[in-house]
Amino acid sequence: MINITTVTEGTTYIAKFEGRLDVNAAAKADDALSEIAGKADKLVLDFENVEYLSSTGLRVIKRVRLKMKDKNGSQITIRNLKPEIKDILEMTGVAAMLVFE
Considering its fold, how many domains does the chain have in total? Predict the structure, then answer.
């Protein structure tokens, strides 16, 4: 289960995640982030309360990153990562596509 709350600061959207970004949450996360990507000039993913990230969750991040890049060339920023989540991003090569705070 994943909960996503969104805060806007001008054209910057901050999506705060809570729970597991896995196969059960992927559709909800993809829908929410795709909608945000259509409006945002900058997207920040706050993963402070993400407990688990699966390969399906990685695909969601990669897909939304491509939408942001195609739209206006911007990157996705991720903040407040737990070390084990950052390790997953680094081991899979996804970290190279992102900006970290």
Answer: 1
The CATH number linked to 14 is 3.30.750.24
Interacting residues of 9 by C-beta distance below 8 A, sequence separation 6+: none
pLDDT at 74: 78
- Supply the range of the domain harboring residue 64: 2-100
Average pLDDT rounded to a whole number, residues 3-31: 95
> CA 44, CA 15: separation in Å to the nearest integer?
6
**Cα→Cα distances 14→8, 47, 89, 92, Å:** 6, 10, 19, 24
| Dist. CA 40–CA 36, nearest whole Å | 6
Across the chain, mean pLDDT equals 93
Tens of pLDDT, residue by residue over 51-73, are 999 999 999 999 999 988 887 77
